[in-house]
Each structure stands twice: as structure tokens, then as C-alpha cells.
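Notes on consecutive records. When two proteins share a document, each keeps its own sequence and its own C-alpha cell line. Never mix them. Below: protein one.
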Amino acid sequence: MTKGASIDLVNGGMAMAKICIFSCILGCFFLTSSARADVAKYSCPDLPAKAVASDFSQPVYQGKDGWFFRQSDLTHQFALTDSNAEMLKRMNSALRLQGTKFFMLPVPTRGIMANKFAQDDGIFENKYIFEEAFAEQQFKDIIAMLESYHIGVVDILGYLEKHPDDDRSQYFFARDIHWSTTGAAWSAPAAALEIKNNITLNTEEIKNYQTKKNGLQKSVNSPTNLILNQICADRLPSEIIDTFETKDNSQSLDAFLDDNAQQNAPVHLIGTSFSVESFAFHFAGFLRSELQADVADYALTGGGIDQSLYDWSHSDARLKSPPKALLWEIPYIDRLPIFPEPSARQIVPALGGLCTGTANAIQEMAYDKQNKLIMNVTKRNISGSSFYLASNLSDDSMRVPTFKLSYDDGQQEDFSPRRPERVLKVNKLFWELSDIYPGNLKSVEIEFEPGKIETGTLALCKYPDSVIQQTTN
């Protein structure tokens, strides 16, 4: 089969024989299908090819009633790699040690939710086949896998199955990748139920939030629609949504003016532009109403699946007042297999924290106004992902320094810790040792940018046993 029509089942529980059988069935269906195509609402000649050459960088297909689908919206591939599983388990364990319950909200794809607007029963322009029932089952399998890691998982499909009167295609816009305000409003009670079943709010944490329409409508500022208008012959109108506001009716003026209100929230939210407060989807507001509690929103627009998590894991706010719950809204669960390894090697130790002065500190040093420093490791048997480096910096705007780790077998790892582009300031650096270097760590060398000096601390840390155990489970 061609690349566009192939369906790869990368879930480890599926046998290769099943892949072949399913692919053959789809191939036969494709070959015997008629050439009929549903009448398109808009004129967009050669749309798939033009989309590949545009900022979409992938084929786009027009569905029914003005709906458009990127090929990634029509994926059947939902899988987790071994490194994904290890990262998530270790994150969960590290957060649990701080009293924080970890929750994930995997957002179903547009193809699964709005399949009724697909072309020709899922055959798009005789080029791509989408089998919604199969994709949905694969997505449900990922939900079950995440639940097996003892993570709190918000099951949107399961929630909507209990509300059969809801038209789940309303979860998304026809010409934008984000969930609609309807989708956000449905996701909030599903998330709140999962959270409230796993944490207990104190009396002082319970609020009186109310959400209501504010009487205003807004055009969706959709990059998707903008690019389509550059490709299509017809003009595609912007979609219009009602906007909402959420207020705490129990809030005093002093509380309203308290800058620490977000920091002290029992629930923290990380994620993408789906959840950013300045966008009109209003998920954080809906969630506050459903929880009747403060929610601190740390979502980032344009940050992909990892940058908000990176930012939050390194933030002082998290350390000063760890929340009872962390909710990770993640609309691209199929992208977890390409989660940046440098981010993973920084996020998990960041959750472990600065170990200076604790029982988990193997060796530590302070430095003052240095451009370059060296720590000669005095302990033996320091090797592998049970250990990490943690450095506290005085200048949170300094560019990321270069590290050189030397091992007693002659191997050396040179790297610069990744600072995601959406994360403007970081005053802490973390790096997890890798199992691919079997030797014992001999020395750590750090060099800051030319002409700059830095003051801070450097520690060699060992994870608590409960975090280490996740590597072997």
C-alpha cells in the first residue's frame, strides 16, 4: 500500500499478522470502492498537494459541510515507546513524593470525534483511508495503558459515551485544530470528576465559581483557516463562537488582589494553546467551575507537547507550593513517541528537585563568579539513570552552558541542556545521567557563555528509591 493509505499498529500488544490482515481488508475495500466523492462545499483544487507545499507541511483533505482534516487528524497510530513509559512512571513517582497527583487529559483526534464529516465513508480523495472504529479502539488502548501506570487519566470518549445525546463532532471546529468552547466545556467535568475522585480539597480551598456567557461573540483567529484561504479558490469564512467568563462569587477584594492566589491553587494545569487563558476556549474557567477550586494555568501557546511541562517542572511556583493535582492537557498523544529526549532527561530530575542539603545529595559544591567549573567526583559506582545533576543559577536569563561528563572508561558526553524557545527564563539546570554510558562518572565540567560569570551551586543527586524502581518495573 502507499504511504498515505498505510496503517501501522505500533501498539506492542498487536501481532504483525493482525496488521497484515487489517491492511489487506482496507486495501480490498479501497480497490472495490466507487469513485464517488461527496460534493465539496468549497473549491480547493489539488488541496492535498498544495497543503504539503504550504505551512501545513502535510496533506489536507476536505470533508463534508466545510470540514477540513489534516492527515495527522486521521491517524490510526497511538503508541507509547518504552522510554515514554519509563518517563511517565518516573514523573508520576516523583510528583507523588511531593504530594501531587498526576493526571493526563489526552484529547481525541478530530478524525475520531468528527468522523461523520469524513468523505466517502472515510476514503479521502481515493488517497487516504480512515477507519474511525479502528482508530478509536487504538486510542482507547492508549488510555488503558496510561491507567496501568497509576496515572489519573481523563477519558473523554468514556465520558461522552455516558452522554449519548451530545453530538461529539461539536467537540472541534470545522476549520481549526483546537477544541471548541463546547469541547472545552465537555472536557472540564470529565477532568473534574477524575480529579475529585483522587484528591481531597480543604474547606478553605473550596470556592464559588460560576461560568456564564458574557453576551459577546468572537471570530476564531485560526491559522488553519488562514492557510486554507491561501490555498483554496473560494473564500472560507471565520467561525464564530460565544465567549464565556468565570468568576468566584465568594472572593473578597483582598483575595482578588492577592498575587499568590495562582501559586497557592490546589490544581495546576499545563498544556498547549487549547488551555491558554488568553484564548477563547475557556477550558481553565470551565474547570474552575466544575472543581469549585482555583486552577493555576501554566499552559503555553506554540509550545508543542513538552514546553509547558518543562517550564512548570523548573518553576519556583511549583517548588514553593506543590499542588495537590497536576493536569497535563495533551492534544497530540500520538506524538509522545517523538518526545524530545533532552527534555525528558531534564524534566524528570527537575521534578526530583535540587538535592543540595538533602540525603539524596551524593556530592555538592558552591561556586562564586565563575565562568568555568569542575567537579571531580569522589564517590564510586555513579553510573546510569539513577543519578542526575542539579545546578542553581543566580542569572535566570543566561544562555544554557555547555557540560562535559567524563567517565572512568574513557567515554565522554558533551551537551548543552535544552531550553525550549517558549521558556524565557530558567534559574535551574538538571540533567539525568544516561544508561548508555556504563562507566562510572569521574568528573563534571561546566562552561558558561564567553565573558559571563555565574554564581550558584552544583550537586550530584540520586533519585529516591521509588523513582529508581520505575526504571526496572
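Protein two starts on the next line and is unrelated to protein one.
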Amino acid sequence: MAAKLFGIMMINVQSIELSIVNLRTLKQVERVRSDVSLGEDIYDQHTIDYDSVEEAAQALTGFIQIMNDYGVQDYHLWGSRSLSSANNADYIQDQLRVRTGLTIDWLSSSQETYLRSVAVAVHFPKFKQMITKPTYLLGINSGSVGISHYDQSNFVFSRSLRLGPVRISEVLEDLQSSVPNYVEVLDDYISSQITDFGRFLPGRRDQPSNVVMLGVAPFATLFTQQQTKAGGEELSSADFKALYDDVIDASDQYLMEKYQVDEADVRLIVPELLLINELLQLTHAQSIWLTNVTVLDGLIIQEAIKLGYKRYNFNNQIVTAAKNIADRYHVEPKHRELVTKFALHLFDQLKPLHQLGKRERLLLQVASIVHDVGSYIDPHQHYMHSDYILRATELTGLTDDEKEIIALVSRYHSAQTPSKDLKHFEHLQLEQRLLVSKLSAILRIADALDDGRKQKIDKISVSIRNPRVIITCFAHDDLFLENWVFAQKAKFFKEVFGLMPVIKLRGVR
């Protein structure tokens, strides 16, 4: 069978990359980087430099020619979260589309953190053995940090923080010439950001941990030399401290001569080193590893899974992260577990009606887990609170569009329906409106089956008998309340699918 070559391009703040890869084997046949800096002042001025658009367009046109030379017909262009947050990101996106024919798909922060985790899981040889003990993946790019935590061979937690070396350097640039103790001020600033961030880290934080660092480009040169000096693949916390002490007050000339740091990167070394030092203290790092896998490698794996070339399944990370959010807002666990169980069973049995796929099933699962987070604010109209909480919360591994879908499904699981709330619904494209309506209709029915929060129903079976959908409930108590709520929520289900759901009660001995 002929090799399936695919081209994936990624626009970052400081570079544009291309990978041409065989999706069957994940073997890269070409990897090209162009040092085009679209976001020279993005964290300070919040805009992308228009003068660099032509340079970026030329680089992308060159990438297209390379892909044509390899006979690559399928390719995709992604853009980093940092660039998408610029005030003029939409204009730049359109200008590049006009010049190259390529449309940028923007990644969310949670996607970037998730994709790094996926890349490490596939490409880092010691990963499975390492995560039997507390392990943190620290993905550091120009403007943010992504932390993923593993323990006892399971994914535990993921979160991102807008604090990268370029962002720090740009935001505090004016201070460098106006304060005598610039390094100390930098350290105080970073520490203040990390302290709040650290409160959300779960697990055995007092235990020594393994740390795998990704994307630390300027620091990588320093790490490699210290690694050689230490005589092993990883650094100990003592090795890192020795490196830190040698570098933190060093002159630019010293860094360039001893560590071969590029002159353009010297200004980033101190902010990055201070940031890494704070993160290593936060995670109680004992052993420190460095890998060169990136978000681009995660995108390659994601594409291979999507097109059926690989069968990796990392959905457990997305589900675990959703449960973490539900726990943070004290969602009642028994109710959410039963509603999730019923919602997924309904989804599977009603496939002839909704004709949705695996990704949509995952979105329903996440919505079922988090739909009641708004009760933390106020049980009255909690569905509206759920909507805005979820819009403002990172949902690991999901796009911004998917996050909006889950927020809307949570909004419509209770009293409101899309038909009666057009101002929050009509801006969506038709396909998204249908998806929100279908998932909401299913979740409303599942939620009604445990409206009393007493788990009266042990299991359900579903059969489609036009013009009805028969839901047989195996219950150990009466369902008077559930029947009443079900009858109200069933109306929207009929509006969406054209069939009326009805409950059939079966007793359980």
C-alpha cells in the first residue's frame, strides 16, 4: 500500500514550521522551519506586525512548493493561541488566505497543552514507566506554560498559564533600564503568577516528581551542555541548581561564548530560567528531562487518528479534565455519573435518528459531566451560570468551538431551549445549531430520568417505534417526579427528532 503523506504547518509567534509525514508510520520525511517572527511585540502591543505578513506568505508559498515536490495533496495550516489572541488576528488570517490560499485554524491553549501530552506519550520512550510516579509535563512556549500531571500511570490534571519568556520579557522590558535589581523584580513577578496557578494543582504535591520539559528552545542549549557534564540523560535538581547559579547573573557575552546561545535569544534566557526554576520548585522536581517534541508532533498524531491510520485513544484525558472541573464546582457525583451513563446509552441507541459520530459522543459525555457546574453559583437558573462558567474555563483537548457547544448544551439541558433563546443560538452555523439541539435534547431526557437525584432507575433500554421512542426504565421506586419532568423535556426532543419519547416502567426486584 502506498505511503500516505500529509503536510502539517504551524504558525508560531517566532517561526513557521512544516512537517511532511507518513501517517501510517508517523515517520517524517521532511521538516522545515522558517524563522519568521509574526508576533515580535504581540504581548506588549497585542497586535501582529503587518510588515511580517509578506514574509510569512513567502514562507508558506515555499512550503506549498515543497509539498508539491513530494506529491502531497492533503495539508493543513494551524496557528498558535498566542497569535490568535492578537487584536488584528482576523485581518492577518484573511491576508494570508488571500496571498496563499491557506486558511489558519487557530488552536486553543487547552488544545496545545493536550497535543504536547499526546506527543510525549507516543514519542518519549520512558513515558509509561515514568508516570507510575508523580510526573509533570511542562510545555513552555513564547507566551504560555502548559502543565500536565500524571501519577500511578493515570492522567490527573492539565492547565495552562499565560506566562512565557517572550511575554515576560516584553511586558517588563521597560523595567530593565529603570530598576537596579531587574532579575529580582522578574523573579517576584513570575513568583506572583505561579503562586495562584499552583493552588489548582492536585495530587501528591509534596512527593518528589519527574519533570519532562518541552519547547524550551533557548534553554535547551544550556540543558544539553549541563546534561553532558552530569553524564546522564536527565538532570537532577542539584544539576539544575548548579546551572541556574552559573547563568542567572552571567553577562550576555559569557552566555554566548560558554553555552553558544544565539545573540537574538540571550534576552530570553533569564526570564525562561527564572520561570523554569519556579515551576521546578512548584512540582518538587527530582529528575528533569528534556524532549524536542512539539505541538506540531501532537497535530500529526491527531491527524493520523482522525483519518484512521492510528488507534491511539487519549479521550480519557479529556474526560478526566471534565471531571476535575465538575469536582471543582462540587457537582454531585452520583447524579452526574448516572446522567452520563443514560446520555451515552441514549446516544448509542438513537444513532439512526441523530447520525452523529464518535467526536460528538465525546462532547455529549463532557457536557453530561459538567452541565450542573452553575449550581455552585446559584441553583436557581443554574443552567445560565453553567454557560458562562464553561465559556471561561479551559476544557482540555477541545477547540474553542467545541467549548462553546458544550457551554450551550449545558445552558439548554434544563428550562431553556434553543427555540426560546435565539439571541444565544442564532449566531451559530446551521451544522452547529443542529448539533447543539441534538445533544441538548438527549441530555435533557437523561437528566430528567434522575431529576430527584435519588438514582431510582438502575438501567434503561431504548427502542425506536415510530412515532415514539420507548425508554424502558428498570426502577426500584416510583417515578412520579421523573415522569412529570420527563413529559416537559420530551417536547423539545420531539421538536428536534420528530418522535415523542415516552417512559415505560419496569420494576426491579
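For the record: The mean pLDDT is 91.
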